[in-house]
Amino acid sequence: MAPEIITNGTDEQCSRSPAGKSIADFPSNANNIEYARSLDACCPLRHFRNEFIIPSKSNLRAQSLSEISASPMTDSASDAGIYFCGNSLGLQPKRTSAYVQNLLSTWATICVDGHFRPVADSPLAPWQDLAESASKLCAPLVGAVPSEVSIQNTLSVNLHLMMASFYRPTAVRNKVLLEFHAFPSDHYTIESQIKWHGYDPDEAMLLVTPDHGKYTLSTSELLATIDAYADQLALIVLPGIQYYTGQMLDIPLITEHAHKHGIPIGWDLAHAAGNVPLQLHDWGVDFAVWCTYKYLNSGPGSIGGLFVHERHGKVEYADSKSETGHDTESANRPIYRERLTGWYGGDRAVRFNMDNKFIPIPGAAGYQISNPSAIDLSCVIASLSIFNETSMQALREKSLRLTAYAEHLLLQDVPLIDGETAYKIITPCNPNERGAQLSLLFKPGLLDKVGQGLKSGGVVADQRKPAVCRIPPAPLYNTYEEVYTVVRIIKEAVS
Ligand SMILES: *Cc1c(COP(=O)(O)O)cnc(C)c1O
Fold it and tell me: Which portions of the sequence form the region Disordered (predicted)?
């Protein structure tokens, strides 16, 4: 079911004090490495860490491949680095290399037959079935029926394809609502689609901004904006989780509101997929797109995912007989939602007939265009097979506690500079309004110091200029002890 999202939770409603509203209350000895270790020791998901290659501090500093020790995996705790960058590029699962090796072996041995012929002891289906295997594994993570998911292309390309189908502007109704601080690629995609249709982005892009002095978007403000522009809006595109602030939007509420006005809505789930439980089918979302290399750990630039609701994937036929009882040419033509097409979206039974009569596969797979990369799909399947050994609910439970622990420690004895705290957390304090990530906004001039401190402590975490550092503990492989250490390093760096 939908996570119990509380809308309009604002800083006023939940105090940032350590004793404030929090998913987990921590005891007075929480700021202690022994306490952190005790949480790890009783964590029911702790064995998943062993499924990942945790980089060693020495490998993180390597300048050449030959410098990297024979085995890239470190099992020596003292040399283990701390990886807090799963929101950007997830760690490599240990099993990925075996999956990819299987693919390479099949290609090297049975060659073109690998498309169709099953290989008994391989963890991979024939290549023609890999996209479907990946969709099946991904569907429970986003709360979809498997046929509503397609693993194809990359996020921005999929957003273009979805807009080609769902953005049908008219002279009156041509605006797209998005957020002011959208990820650049999303902004460019929407801007160029508007131009492509011959409209002016300055007029047609409706950017919602946070209230003055705030960092996060207000749900009521968003809904009011939709109301105000309802008859001019052709489409809404929003992030499930905002990449910079870590704010999670109320997907079901906003989706329902858009639909009340008959406006289609698509969600960018780059930072939500594999991070929080989603129920895209039940929420009635029109479409969604995500990448698989962030929380989904499928490798740099790996193939992306998309969701198209069942109601938009139908392929129907008019009655095969006309009223006079004769077959008609038009009656046999499939009826489906318009889209940009390619041969891989075509019905597999007739795909290789090469007769140039396009009949889409029902569901999201009918939005495919090209033959997908089998290497990418092998990486996705390897990674998703780990997710499928647990559930998003179990991962979310741990994630809530890990992030609450980070927040708890960060808010204790915050170093002061000229009487002001060295940093503040700009991510919503309400756990129902965020995923794994906390975004710290530092006082001017401190970010570089923090970056240096983290680097010399063997921590990988990203800094977004001018002043934000994002801390996204990933429940599959990060530990409470790592959270403890990272917070200690950050505080030391700014003291
Ligand atoms: C990571 C990310 C992307 C990446 O797009 P690609 O097409 O995979 O390069 C796009 N949008 C958002 C919001 C992201 O966080």
Answer: 1-21
Just give the CATH number of 129-313+367-387: 3.40.640.10
pLDDT tens sequence across 86-133 = 999 999 999 999 999 999 999 999 999 999 999 999 999 999 999 999
Whether 10 has a pLDDT exceeding 50, the answer reads no
Ligand 1 atom with the shortest distance to the CA of 268: 13
Whether the model clears a pTM of 0.85, i.e. scores above it, the answer is yes
Angle between helices 392-410 and 33-41 (to 10 degrees): 170
* Domain residue limits, the chain: 33-65+74-80+391-494, 129-313+367-387
Could you identify the atom of ligand 1 that is nearest to the CA of residue 304? Answer: 8
Closest CA to 481 of 464, 463, 462, 459: 459
Q: 304 CA to middle of ligand 1, Å? A: 9
* Ligand 1 in reach of 186 Cβ (< 6 A): yes
Q: How far is CA 21 from CA 16, 121, 173, 399, in A?
A: 8, 51, 43, 17
Query: What are the tens digits of pLDDT across the range 277-318?
Result: 999 999 999 999 999 999 999 999 999 999 999 999 999 998
CA 387 to CA 183: how far, in whole Å?
A: 26
What's the Cα-to-Cα distance from 274 to each of 249, 297, 353, 406, 474, rounded to whole Å?
A: 16, 9, 38, 20, 10
Section 249-271 average pLDDT: 98
Ligand 1 centre distance from Cα of residue 78 (Å): 34
Helical axes 374-387 vs 96-109, angle rounded to 10°: 140
Sequence-ordered list of residues with C-beta below 8 angstroms from that of 23, at least 6 positions apart, any chain: 400, 401, 404, 431
Once rounded to an integer, what is the mean pLDDT over residues 2-19? 38
State the fold for domain 33-65+74-80+391-494.
Answer: Aspartate Aminotransferase, domain 1 (3.90.1150)
Amino acid at position 174, single letter: N
Residue 12 has pLDDT above 50, yes or no: no
* Contact criterion met (CB below 8 Å) for 459 and 84: yes
